[in-house]
Amino acid sequence: MRRKIIAGNWKMHMLTAEGRALARELAPLGKEAPGTDVIVCPPYTALSAVGEVLAGSGVHLGAQDVFWKEKGAYTGQVAPAMLVDIGVSHVIVGHSESRGRFGVPEPGMDDAVLAHFGDSDKTVNLKLRAARAAGLIVLCCVGETLAEREAGQTDAVVSRQVAGALEGLDAGELAGVVMAYEPVWAIGTGKTCEADEADRVCGVIRSEVGRLFGGSAADAIRIQYGGSVKPGNAGDLLGRPNIDGALVGGASLVAADFAAIVKACPA
Ligand code: PGA
User: CA-based, 20 to 30 A from 255: which of 41, 57, 193, 265?
Assistant: First the structure.
């Protein structure tokens, strides 16, 4: 039986005082849900403050991204060891927003602007491997856009992203990877992927892991669903055989909603 894993992705929300206050409300979840891994991922600037509040609570601290080099002339980047240094244990890589694939495109976000969010399958792989080498648990996101879904490309896109992200990993590196299926069209849009379909695509991800690393790796790897997860749909999603957790955006900013999602995990 795979252990459930619920992560809150705060995205670009929360100044330090707000983050501390939310973390104080979430800290009891570590004890209240001992059978579930609970992670909160504040922005870089609030990591230390939130980490101080969560210390000893059993709720884990995650970052939203990381760079792949150990150190050097990389202005604006954050190295894996820098995250470990401040108590971070988990990190998201390959989020669609870091790949420039937005569920809710904004006016003015033309290609020249989107190029700022430049993750590719290759950089996701570099980030994932560097994070694992530093001992971080990686939450690795994959998912198709609406156009790709409508063109019947969902399974091919997701499989390609999985293979790209995991290229060259050994079994030890893979043991600290959690996959997250995040259909781009469901992120921040209020449109949740139907639980049956989310479970099916998580099964596609599991099969791809099996093709690359063998059956026992496929059985062992945990796969989250993300995209408009809320208290009202969490129980249905989390009860599916291929869905081992949730990566929660908007609802993770409301303590009661995030707690309800954590508690929706089957015991
Ligand atoms: P959402 O975001 O829950 O706000 O849709 C999920 C995510 O992007 O991880």
Answer: 193
What are the pLDDT digits (tens) for 82-92? 999 999 999 99
Structural contact between residues 180 and 139, judged by C-beta atoms closer than 8 angstroms: yes
106 catalytic residue (yes or no): no
Would you call 182 a catalytic residue per the annotation? yes
Look at residue 108 in the predicted model and tell me its pLDDT.
87
Q: Residue 153 sits in which domain range?
A: 146-171+188-222
Decide if 258 contacts 251 (C-beta within 8 A): yes
Question: Is 207 a member of any domain?
Answer: yes
Burial of 260 (0-12, 13-18, 19+ CB in 10 A): middle
Residues in contact with ligand 1 (CB, 6 Å cut-off) = 9, 182, 187-188, 226-229, 247-251
**For the segment 13-39, what is each residue's pLDDT rounded down to a tens digit?**
999 999 999 999 999 999 999 999 999
In a domain, 202, yes or no: yes
For atom 7 of ligand 1, the residue with the nearest CA is 249
pLDDT digits (tens, 9 = 90+) for 199-231: 999 999 999 999 999 999 999 999 999 999 999
**235 within some domain:** no
Say if 3 falls within a structural domain. no
The total of structural domains in the chain comes to 1
Strand partners, 177: 138
